[in-house]
């Protein structure tokens, strides 16, 4: 196998981890919670897209509709479930997202059953390059491209619109923002809604590579968590770079280090993450926390 | 983890003599009920209670770390597995149970300490992510080390047989053995919490800088809490093998760690009763939801979890304590006005 191709494949799966990790960062920035249900919410969005596609909607339309629907549902989840646990005991908030994970998983199995489903790729089959250089699939390129679009769109939203400015104010200091008259609650809903929408995209990107199943995102969530923490939980750039790093390292280690093999593949980026965190506890791109007595 | 100052480490043991009297009576009644329970119940019910005690010990270990010291861990299932494999592998090689118990808990403690020494520098989600690595690595490792662990098949053992003179069935004897073991480690934890260590852990949780100023060596106590938590996880693993006579890699998956954390939140932090209630939720509720509807068992379990958290965000034990205090106060007021 060609090294370049392995690296690019790693970037492809890393881009999926990055997309879900961005959703985690959005939730963490707005509400200070790490949402363990983010992957499972992405799964149900993907099932919705599949159902629409199955009913005859073109694949891009189905994915778009699922993303919009996720935006709404994500905002409602924040408003009616998570709101009650913000600012309380952090463990309670974590466990609520775990409860959400279990419930959504059960709901997916109930509605769609546990039989694997084939999800259509939004990109054409085949790829560029051939021969000794290997082939870079359009799916891989499309996934990387989709991630870049998400990053640019979020960057534009947060840096160049009044809405993004308000959102950043709420993330930085909810109390002062409320005193300034910003609709804090609605902006928090926006954070969760955007996260659910980005997560839905991650689900639709990964589903053609795997089969659509209730547990599809479990391992992706583990990688995304690692990427988000490694990136400092607040930085989009750091998160994307960390996710790419994880995807490439995992792919190379699984292919070239015979001891690692398929079963230990997931451990390699995690162990590397542990080593990095020990030297940079705030994450590679995070900011040092200042504490007061 | 945010700073939460609520109940003090040393509970007010006072109250009126009537109340103290009532508390002693309740305790004696509970011990009696617990002692005669297996003689009248089915083997299945006995196994359920035994498993509740097993998980209660593991959740208590997690409470030492999360509730007492304010850290977070997703690695408890790995320590549970180390303890379980310690006693099971020992039994396969003909070791007595106590030797397996020592081996399993010692290895769990050493691994916990080794992880904690570097990890104590981290807090919050970074620490959570590091501990998440433990079960992710432990499961494939347990599958690979076939010579010790029996590989993916796991280990079947026959340990802790009821002596003939007792006339007890296997499930009843294991119930008592696990019950006594759990009682010992619960009593140890209660003593620890009331003393110097409990206060130091509280200080670390509430404010690290202040703890340092008071002469509490923060890193040392974090490592100690992590090690203790791992040892409790190991003990729970040993008790698990006593209860079910089997261990396989599937037992130590990350899901178990997450379920234990959920059990801790449901029972309530910093409460011995809460650890038991959380374990009971983990063991009993899936059975209940499964009997209601096999197909929707998982969905119902998740919904139960959410409903309990919504109704009692601080856990069942604090909510119960609050209710009991209210009733007792009302009664006392009624008695006082009647006099």
UniProtKB/TrEMBL annotation, chain A:
The lineage of its organism: Bacteria, Bacillati, Actinomycetota, Actinomycetes, Streptosporangiales. One of its GO terms (cellular component) is plasma membrane. One of its GO terms (biological process) is amino acid transport. The keyword ATP-binding does not apply. The keyword Protease does not apply. This is Branched-chain amino acid ABC transporter permease. Signal peptide: none annotated. It comes from Planotetraspora silvatica. It is a multi-pass membrane protein. It comes from the Bacteria. GO terms for molecular function: transmembrane transporter activity. It is found in: Cell membrane. Belongs to the binding-protein-dependent transport system permease family. LivHM subfamily. Keywords: Amino-acid transport, Cell membrane, Membrane, Transmembrane, Transmembrane helix, Transport. The chain crosses the membrane at residues 6-26, 33-53, 59-81, 93-115, 135-158, 190-208, 220-246, 266-285. It holds the Pfam family BPD_transp_2.
Automatic annotation (TrEMBL), chain B:
Keywords: Cell membrane, Membrane, Transmembrane, Transmembrane helix. InterPro entries: ABC_transp_permease, LivM-like. The keyword Transmembrane applies. GO terms for cellular component: plasma membrane. The chain crosses the membrane at residues 24-41, 47-66, 98-117, 124-142, 173-192, 223-247, 253-285, 297-316. CDD domains: TM_PBP1_LivM_like. One of its GO terms (molecular function) is branched-chain amino acid transmembrane transporter activity. It is found in: Cell membrane. Its main location: membrane. It holds the Pfam family BPD_transp_2. It is a multi-pass membrane protein. PANTHER family: HIGH-AFFINITY BRANCHED-CHAIN AMINO ACID TRANSPORT SYSTEM PERMEASE, HIGH-AFFINITY BRANCHED-CHAIN AMINO ACID TRANSPORT SYSTEM PERMEASE PROTEIN LIVM. This is Branched-chain amino acid ABC transporter permease.
């Amino acid at each position: 196998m060609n090294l370049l191709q392995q690296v690019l494949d790693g970037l492809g799966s890393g881009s999926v981890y990055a997309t879900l990790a961005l959703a985690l960062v959005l939730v963490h920035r707005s509400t200070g919670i790490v949402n363990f249900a983010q992957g499972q919410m992405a799964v149900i969005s993907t099932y919705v897209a599949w159902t629409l596609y199955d009913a005859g909607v073109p694949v891009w339309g189905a994915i778009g509709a699922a993303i919009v629907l996720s935006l709404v549902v994500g905002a409602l989840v924040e408003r009616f479930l998570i709101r009650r646990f913000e600012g309380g005991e952090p463990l309670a908030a974590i466990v609520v997202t775990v409860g959400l994970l279990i419930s959504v998983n059960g709901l997916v199995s109930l509605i769609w059953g546990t039989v694997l489903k084939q999800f259509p790729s939004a990109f054409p089959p085949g790829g560029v390059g051939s021969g000794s250089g290997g082939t870079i699939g359009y799916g891989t390129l499309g996934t990387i491209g989709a991630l870049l679009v998400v990053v640019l769109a979020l960057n534009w939203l947060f840096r160049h619109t009044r809405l993004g400015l308000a959102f950043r104010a709420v993330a930085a200091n909810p109390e002062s923002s409320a005193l300034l008259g910003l609709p804090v609650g609605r902006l928090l809903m926006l954070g969760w809604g955007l996260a659910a929408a980005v997560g839905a995209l991650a689900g639709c990107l990964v589903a053609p590579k795997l089969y659509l199943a209730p547990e599809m995102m479990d391992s992706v969530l583990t990688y995304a968590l690692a990427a988000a923490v490694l990136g400092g939980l607040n930085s989009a750039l750091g998160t994307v770079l960390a996710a790419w790093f994880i995807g490439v390292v995992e792919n190379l280690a699984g292919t070239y280090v015979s001891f690692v093999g398929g079963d230990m593949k997931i451990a390699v980026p995690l162990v590397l993450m542990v080593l990095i965190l020990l030297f940079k506890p705030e994450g590679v791109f995070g900011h040092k926390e200042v504490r007061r007595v | 983890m945010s700073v939460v100052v609520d109940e003090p480490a040393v509970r007010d043991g006072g109250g009126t003599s009537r109340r103290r009297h009532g508390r002693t009576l309740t305790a004696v009644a509970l011990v009696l009920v617990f002692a005669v329970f297996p003689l009248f119940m089915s083997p299945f019910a006995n196994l359920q209670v035994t498993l509740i005690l097993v998980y209660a010990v593991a959740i208590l270990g997690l409470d030492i770390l999360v509730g007492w010291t304010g850290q977070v861990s997703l690695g408890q299932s790995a320590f549970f597995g180390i303890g379980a494999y310690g006693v099971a592998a020992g039994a396969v090689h003909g070791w007595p149970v106590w030797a397996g118990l020592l081996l399993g808990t010692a290895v769990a403690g050493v691994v916990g300490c080794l992880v904690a020494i570097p990890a104590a520098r981290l807090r919050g989600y970074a620490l959570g992510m590091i501990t998440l690595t433990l079960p992710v690595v432990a499961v494939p490792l347990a599958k690979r080390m076939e010579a010790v662990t029996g590989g993916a098949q796991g280990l079947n053992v026959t340990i802790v047989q009821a002596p003939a003179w007792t006339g007890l069935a296997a499930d009843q004897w294991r119930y008592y053995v696990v019950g006594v073991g759990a009682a010992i480690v619960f009593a140890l934890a209660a003593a620890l919490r009331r003393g110097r260590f409990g206060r130091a852990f509280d200080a670390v949780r509430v404010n690290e800088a202040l703890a340092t100023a008071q002469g509490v060596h923060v890193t040392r106590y974090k490592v100690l809490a992590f090690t203790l938590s791992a040892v409790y996880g190991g003990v729970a693993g040993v008790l698990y093998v006593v209860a079910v006579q089997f261990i396989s890699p599937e037992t130590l998956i990350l899901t178990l760690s997450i379920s234990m954390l959920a059990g801790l939140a449901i029972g309530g932090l910093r409460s011995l009763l809460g650890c038991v209630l959380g374990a009971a939720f983990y063991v009993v509720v899936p059975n209940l939801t499964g009997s209601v509807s096999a197909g929707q068992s998982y969905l119902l379990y998740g919904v139960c979890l959410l409903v309990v958290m919504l109704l009692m965000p601080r856990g069942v034990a604090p909510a119960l304590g609050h209710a009991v205090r209210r009733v007792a106060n009302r009664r006392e007021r009624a008695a006082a006005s009647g006099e």
